[in-house]
ATP-binding cassette domain-containing protein (Komagataeibacter medellinensis), 360 residues
Amino acid sequence: MSVQLEQITRLNPGNGRPIVDGASLAVADGSFTALVGPSGAGKTSLLRIIAGLDPHNSGHVLIDGTRMDGVGAAARNIGFVFQHYALFAHMSVAANIGFGLSIRPRGSRPRRDAIARRVEDLLDLMQLSGLGGRYPHELSGGQRQRVALARTLATGPRVLLLDEPFGALDPLVRRQIRSWLRDVHEKLGLTTILVTHDRQEASELADMVVLMHHGRIVQAGTPQALEDTPADPFTMAFTGDVVRLDGRVENSIFTPDLPDVLPVAAPVAAGPAELLVRPIDIRLRPGYGQATATLRQARGPLGLYTIHLGTQTLQVETLIPPDAAPVAHCALDVSAGRLARGAAWATVTSLPPSGESVHA
Ligand SMILES: Nc1ncnc2c1ncn2[C@@H]1O[C@H](COP(=O)(O)OP(=O)(O)OP(=O)(O)O)[C@@H](O)[C@H]1O
């Protein structure tokens, strides 16, 4: 099922400030979306509005093109798993998973053997076969969260909302669950929206990453699009590592304050500015300056360098230039960066080579 948000706003009932602020989004049927952003950005609030668990002040939620105005949570056919999702401690794993089906009203409740079959199928899908008779306290954290997911999926929701469900698990278990989760999503033909703090998790799992900040959706796109063409400095810093360089623009040329960083052409008005560049995009230019770059560790074509620029030191993982490790008397080329100058956010370009070394 597709999920569409039209200008959703929810105000904090206490102080009237927006918790979610004019959020519009189109989530395609069968897609996997990751909702990311700093703490307090409004991610959980947005999920709860989609699920119908919290009200909103204006805008509309549409599921499969139908407005959900006045449609309660139970009628939306949406599954929701939270980080701290409590299983019933006194019930077996199988009883926990089958619970949602067993409490259905008589007319729509499946027969006992049908519930048992459904539970077995889900145990299989969750790679929990043989554990139906155990109790929650006899399971690991990762197994418990898979039971929680199975319990949510038992009633056959088409949209699955996951709010950091694996946040409390150790990184190794999280990585294992990641590939398995995408698999479950595909097999069941779900439309999944996952809140995560883990950048890697978002880009590995999701078709679309949605970045929220101060209740607003700042940018939505493929993981690659957010990394390669961030909409603003906040998005650039949130979606990957960045090196920030202060400097000044004069005559459309940005000159960094640090020595031995090559100036770049910048199509913005004169004044102070900040250049953001991904470390991986920094290039070492031997012979163009007085910086020294010491190779600490090599990993294939990449090297972890300690770079001394005047009194400053940078740790940067970037491409190893041919025949140049360690590199003395070099400059840094940051022409793959982006420039923030007040409200302007511009790409920069290399200046034409002068034919001679700049600082040599
Ligand atoms: N029912 C509520 N009443 C008042 N304020 C609320 C309510 N729910 C959330 N907020 C506030 O709204 C803001 C957004 O909260 P929300 O939990 O949605 O953010 P989040 O992005 O999910 O954060 P985190 O990553 O820490 O879970 C926070 O400042 C929070 O305190």
User: Anything to note?
Assistant: The chain is about 25% helix and 35% strand. The longest helix spans residues 171-188.
